[in-house]
Amino acid sequence: MSEDAKVNKNQSKKEQLEKFTTDDRGKKMTTNQGLKVSEDEFSLKAGERGPTLMEDFHFREKMTHFDHERIPERIVHARGFAAHGEFQVYESMKEYTKAGFLQDPSKKTDVFVRFSTVAGSRGSGDLARDARGFSTKFYTEEGNYDLVGNNIPVFFIQDAIKFPDLIHAVKPEPHNEIPQAASAHDTFWDFVANNQESAHMVMWTMSDRAIPRSYRMMEGFGVHTFRFVNEQGVSHFVKFHWKPVLGTHSVIWDEAQKVNGKNPDFHRLDLWEAIENGDYPEYELGVQIISNEDEFSQEFDILDPTKIWPEEDIPVKIIGKMTLNRNVENYFAETEQVAFHPGHVVPGIDFSNDPLLQGRLFSYTDTQLLRLGGPNFHELPINRPVCPFFNNQRDGFGRQTINRGKVSYHKNSLADNTPEPASKEEGGFEHYHEKIDAHKVRARSESFKDHFTQATLFWNSMSKPEKDHLIEAFSFELGKVESKSVRQQVVDMFGNVSMELATNFADAIGVNPPEGEDTGYTKSSPALSQENSVKKPDTRKVVVIIGQNYSGAEVNYVLKELKKKGVQPEILSNKKGMLQGSDGSELEVDHTFLTADSVLFDAVYAVGGSEEDKKFFKQAALFIHEAYSHFKPIGATQEGRPLLHLDEMEDAPGVIYGGEIEEFTDRFIEAIAAHRFWEREVV
């Protein structure tokens, strides 16, 4: 045995690992080749507002390393669920874009949509407090177009070179791999406090938007500023919106935590069952459009990915609708292997110089090379375009195309110079001819430096309950942060957003309130509040707590009317089987008190039954108590009526009882449509 082998044999695992352990504190930053780095905040651009340059070796090294840090699941957006559907434009968009799928209102375009959480692993729960991915692949006749977005219209950072830093900070801390799928820890909030461009996005992720009721009730956004280009070569700046037909709705934090325990697949199951039941999720596509001439007409930089375009100032034009109508056949082959990329565009859709978007145009392909094993991921069935594709690319992992002939280069004479590029008239893609005259710099435009005004706009736009939930969210998240210094830094930072907000959560987390004056900025955007969203009873789940010898005629009437309005009643009792009504009717039990929980439903209808014992009504009372504490609609008739004495809830908003059965049913359906009754917080 060699001396080295003897040493290794006698070393503990800790000692072996320590040979590869470094402490970077106090060191100067370098590339992996040892070159000292002078700037790590900004990618190299052609001018402060210009495009990112491929010459930026530091950005490419940093991003490439980040893209390859996890195998085999996605580094971010690992936990996802998807469905097939179709998109149809309402009217031709020829005035703004030559994109073929946006021209003919009679034509349908196949789509594949993947929803996801960002921070957690594939095994994490659906109800993490997090941004949600909302990515759509359009299989158009001109090639695949990927609209790769989120359910939040802004992002934490302004330059893609900061993306590895953000995700390193929000992922489980590296020394103990804790916590999973959560931002309530030191490193994330340390990042926030020291990268204050994140202020606006943090307001969104601490709001109810970060814990949606379902994928079907969640907005989607393209996040970045893109370009529409028409046949004449005229460009307009554009932002994309998905508006759910059912409105935008959320759960509350206590509910979210319990749902993750009761059913961590809650969002997945909700989407799957809706499609199986024929309740196809629908989203309208909207666009905000600004002409080239008006690029500098706003009080913010329209290329800044931490800024929204307020809908009251730049209206959203609704141009089409997407319907998800088919579940996947195999999760791995479709949902897991689908590869999105914001650089997958068609003629008529182009890019802006948003520095976060510019970096994504490199990063996404680089990520897929590792995750899907090589350069031929486009040949997997879920990624393959519906139109034919021809080029001189050959070989590589996963190659499926069998190319005939000896030519694999351009230009050539042996194959008559085919395949050859297509002219503009033949549908060849041409980048927008933007004039650039600038110095190569690592810098950020001065117009990107206002980090707080739109965060204040968001706060001003919230309803009283939404503001309360924001304060509670900051209090919870920062209450988990061990470093008092970080907690204080965050409080001081958000004093620049709202003194009311920062002072309230400072008190809850044991640090000093911020110093100074409130911002004085009073503008609001009603479109940002979920209180102003569409409210419908359609597809809401109502649990019916019912027992033996219930009053059949009344119950059957209520159930029939609920179903007419698209509400989905599910029967809950103390055991599975059939329940007998007083009139001889029967109902089959869907759930028991052991297999269901109030957090899995939108409303409760308490009926009871004359032959049930005290144990039944005790369990029912606990079930109703929790639903009531989560501000959900409660309806009660027959033996269920006495259960309302608990919490003295009879006169509380959203608690429906009494009157003729027809009147009761109408009022109960109205309450279901209202979603929540936040007034109970002050009753």
What does the model show?
- The protein is an alpha+beta fold.
- It has helices at 3-10, 13-18, 57-67, 163-170, 186-194, 199-205, 253-262, 266-276, 331-336, 355-371, 453-461, 464-479, 484-494, 499-509, 552-564, 614-629, 661-674, and strands at residues 44-46, 80-89, 108-117, 132-140, 143-150, 220-221, 226-229, 235-244, 282-291, 317-327, 349-351, 440-442, 541-546, 568-573, 578-580, 586-588, 591-592, 603-608, 634-636, 655-656.
- The protein folds into 3 domains: 44-379, Catalase HpII,  Chain A, domain 1 (Beta Barrel); 453-531, Up-down Bundle (Hemocyanin, N-terminal domain); 535-682, Rossmann fold (3-Layer(aba) Sandwich), CATH 3.40.50.880.
- It is built from 17 helices and 20 strands.
- Helix 3 (57-67) packs across helix 10 (355-371) and helix 6 runs parallel beside helix 11.
- It is globular and about 85 Å long.
Q: Gist?
A:
It is built from 17 helices and 20 strands.
Key terms:
3 domains, ten-stranded antiparallel beta sheet, disordered N terminus, 17% strand, Hemocyanin, N-terminal domain
